[in-house]
Amino acid sequence: MLEEQYVWYGAGLESHPRATISYDGGWTRVFVNRPFRELLIRVGWVSRQVISSGDSRVALNDLAPGGSLLQLRIAKR
Prior knowledge:
Shape: globular
Radius of gyration: 13 Å
Number of domains: 2
Structural class: mainly beta
Number of strands: 7
Order of helices and strands: EEEEEEE
Strand content: 35-45%
C-alpha cells in the first residue's frame, strides 16, 4: 500500500507511526510504503471506498454489500 485517503479521520482507523500525513482540500492523505500479503478490509456502509491501482479503480461496494469483510490479494497474471 502506498497511500490512503480519507475525508476525515474516523474512529477505528489504524495509525501509521512512520507515515507522512498531509491535509489537502478537505482530504487527509496518509503516505505509507507498507507491503501486505493480503489486506482484510470491511466494506463501509456510508463511505464510497475505492481501491486504485494504476488507471484501474474498483468501488468496494460494487464487490460486496456494506459490512462484508473482503480479503484482497495481489496476484501475478
